[in-house]
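Researcher: I'm preparing a figure for a lab meeting and need a structural model of a single chain. I don't have an experimental structure, so a prediction will have to do for now. The sequence is pasted below. Please return the structure as tokens so I can convert it later.
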Amino acid sequence: MSETLTPLHPILAVDDERGVLRAIDTTLRIAGFNNIITCQDSRQVMGILSKNEVEAVLLDLNIPHIGGEDLLPKINSEYPEIPIIIVTGALDIETAVRCMKAGAFDYVVKPVEQDRLVAAIRRSLDFRELKRENLALKQHIMSAPAVKHEAFVEIITNNNKMLSIFQYIESIAQTSQPVLITGDTGVGKELVAKAIHKLSIRRGRFVAVNAAGLDDNVFSDTLFGHVKGAFTSADQARRGLIELASGGTLFLDEIGDLSHASQVKLLRLLQEHEYLPLGQDEPKKTDARIVVATNKDLWSLQKAGKFRNDLIYRLQTHHVRIPPLHERLDDIPLLVDHFLEEAAKALKKKKPTPPKELYTLLQTYSFPGNIRELQAMVFDAVSRHKSKILSLDVFKSHIVQEQGEIEQINPKIKATGDGIMSFPSTKLPTIKQAVKFLVQEAMKSANNNMSIAAKILGISRQALSKRLKNLDADFL
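Model: Understood. Here is the structure written out token by token.
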């Protein structure tokens, strides 16, 4: 099996001393970077750059033939996207500063400290990746709306918000930066994570783990594994999920439930790309891309002291918010049709025909469980289905059972303070006016379907019929 290259494109190190190049190569490989080109002759640099897409250049200033200070503007002119790190002697700081003003990304001083060198390389790679992402985003924004990619085939939608999210995902999918996916329970966060993995150029596996309810020991053992003898029952070594995700994507769901100790370990994994299996002294490196998801508000948790501020900032390099179903009601007919087909196939029944009123009924409901809840409703209805036309009874029963209050049944009416409605002035409407307004709004929301409008109002169909006949009379 071929070794995964890190970074994807090589780092070019230029120095006339073979020993220095060997030391740089060794230091970078220990740090997890194994894709390195070394060059002793500065005259070959431009040729190497013309034949290879290079992530960063480590350039010694004091080299024969073409000096580093002369080579810098040539590289900058032809390859402005490549960050250049200057290597200089302790007495050449003024020259290094001059090079920084001329466009160098950073500098390190000889004798080179290993930590300083690795940190400079990491910053340069992050910088290059951010520039690449910005360019990709700009191209997407300026281009026509993208055709739905096959990677999103499991996500049933034609909603404009969702299609915009797909465009954003396509722009960031091939980077190695972490992705934070937020959204309510049941919106399909794992499907989005899988789409990100499919769109990436990673050849490794997609590995998912739910972090909810995991204490720090279980979290560490699950993710990082352990060595033989790490604890009493550890009679053999065990690989963690992060190792199984090598070259691929690790998806951590429900990260809002992580303990503080686990948050620290996740932060180190994101920053240093390394982890420590239980019972092992030497850390291991990983090239797995981290995608996380939560249905919680991490910023509220941070204010309450339950989530690390630095971890939030590290996670939100790319943030994808999946809208709840009540924000994409136009997808309901598509989703219902998809789930009807799925349910009929699973239950070995003929696909039933949904009544026209079904979509109107569902669009008056807030769906706290989102798409997962709709799927369960459809499967339940199909399992009880006997005639050609699908019955509305299961759906009506579910809505009445799940939501008792009018503002929950109809999300278009929003609560203010402790009340359901607010009024723009101190002059209140009469009871007759208020009831007339409620009846009219219910009928509008229900597309003039009296049964559904009556459900919204919490009254019988007969009572609604009476009110409709007497809208202009004081019928209370």
